[in-house]
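User: Teach me something about this protein's shape.
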Amino acid sequence: MLEIKPGRPLGPIAESIIELLQETGPLTSREIAARLQLSIDMAKKTCSRLENRRRIRVVSRIKTAHSNKPVAKYDVIRSLKTNSAVLPSNLFK
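Assistant: First, the predicted structure itself:
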């Protein structure tokens, strides 16, 4: 059977991007770079890595003044939270 090994831990930039998106909602990589004082390339590469690891996702593509093609807006993939009041009580035994 194939064993799934956990990936390496997130770095400080990736953690900062996730925290920013949790606080503010969807942002482009340019907006992320400006708010975290990163280069645009660093923000794009980190967002791409986080998207591949399924930590963030593209929620929309928008046309901006400084690009010829639509720009991705990223947001955090929120985990499903279970409500213990809805689940049967014997499920946790």
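Now, about its shape. The CA atoms of residues 33 and 41 lie 8 Å apart. The mean pLDDT is 82. If you'd like, I can walk through any region in more detail.
User: That's plenty for now, thanks!
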